[in-house]
Amino acid sequence: MSTIATPNQKLLQGVPPNSPERVLINHPTQSATAIDGWKSVLFGLPFFAAGFFIEFVALNRIDARKNAPNWLIATVGSFFFLAGLFLIVHGIRSAIRKSAYDRAAKQAPRQPWLYDFRWQREGFTFSAFNSMLQRLLAALCWNAFLIPFFWVGTTQRGAWIFAVFAGFFALIGLLFWYRWAQMLGELLRYGNSFLAYNNFPYFLGSKFSARLRAPDHLSDFDELKLTLRCVQERYITSGSGENRKTEVVCFELWGSSQMLSRSQLVAFYGQEIPIEFSLPEAQPSTTLSAAPPTYWEIEANGKSTHATYEAFFLVPVYKPQ
After folding, report:
1. Domain end (from 142, 173, 191)
2. Distance from C-alpha of 248 to C-alpha of 12, rounded to nearest angstrom
């Protein structure tokens, strides 16, 4: 569930603790990474080249002194190779999208909803399967990263500290697996979710109305919280020197919520749940094509003592033209 950051959590996100900004933690981002376009391509090339070189060493295509088995060298090389490949592909895709956006904006400058995002006029599907798969990949990558440290700590004399280090972070990694198992259970029980739009697009200063197709086992929940919010992602740089890092941070610019009780949910069993909010006028329009983006969403969060349900739906909210 997305929550508002405390002052200490703000500091961890690189935001001054006394800042009035509402920072969202544990919130899914639309930005894959805090770098886009040709900068991403250039940044990824050295990693790609290094990974390519290391893999050739592991395959004995390059004569080099080896202090580890080929499988371990290949594992390390794959980290660099895949990281570089991801940045290159991400950069090229974002550059292509930017070019396509510029062309479409010239043709229909007053209708950004036609090219800002690949909207489906009927509504938006939240894929619980994709969310579960992303969490699984994160857990696998975390554990794969620790393999070289375990090998050094268990095979090299006096290097036991590496095994301790890897073991400590492997325990932390159990949180990834716990959350993955939780998301798998949610997928199997509730499946994917769909938010049906009553209008397309929605305009600031007007009414927002939509229908949430009730998930299976709606009676599991004591309450269902529905939140409409405007989210702005920013690339925040914190630290200095070798500890300097840039990450994607989500800010809630505006939000409004409504709560449905168990008795209300029972009445909607097998039906669609109507959602209605008043959209403010003085808020940003959706710009999902920007880097970083600004967007509007509906978050549905159901909870009880034994069950959780979480889904995020992008909604097309734009300034009236």
Report:
1. 191
2. 12
